[in-house]
Amino acid sequence: MNSLTLTNAAAKRVAAIAQKQARPAVLRLAVEGGGCSGFQYKFELSDPEGDDVVSETDGVRLVVDPVSLDLVAGSTVDFVESLGGAAFKVENPQAAAGCGCGSSFGI
Question: For the whole model, what pTM was predicted?
Fold first, then answer.
């Protein structure tokens, strides 16, 4: 199974953002070409589409399109706050290389 996991911290943050924007609590994770390591993650609030894979945590849904899923299957999406700021972070077991910014990866 190409499982995806949204941590409780990430779900809580998505719910808060969605409430402020009066939108559904649905976080879309997509993968685009580019970034310093070949691919980069893109996050947005977006309704699920017909062929999306959907994972749910605490009533918040994480959706991924089939093409992106090939590159992020088995990943965990977390929300991390540090001195450098706060951001969604993808723990991707398929990524062979990453970069300092944490939003780019290589396979």
Answer: 0.86
Return the H-helix or E-strand segment holding 14: helix 8-21
pLDDT, position 91 = 92
Question: CB within 8 A of 58, min separation 6: which ones?
Answer: 8, 11, 12, 15
pLDDT of residue 102: 56
CATH of 5-106, one of 3.30.1050.10, 3.40.50.1000, 2.60.300.12, 2.60.40.10: 2.60.300.12
Given a contact cutoff of 8 angstroms between Cβ atoms, the answer to whether 46 and 64 are in contact is no
Contacts of 101 (CB under 8 A, 6+ apart): 35, 36
**Count of Cβ atoms closer than 10 Å to residue 72 Cβ:** 25
Which residues of the chain are under the pLDDT cut of 50?
A: 1
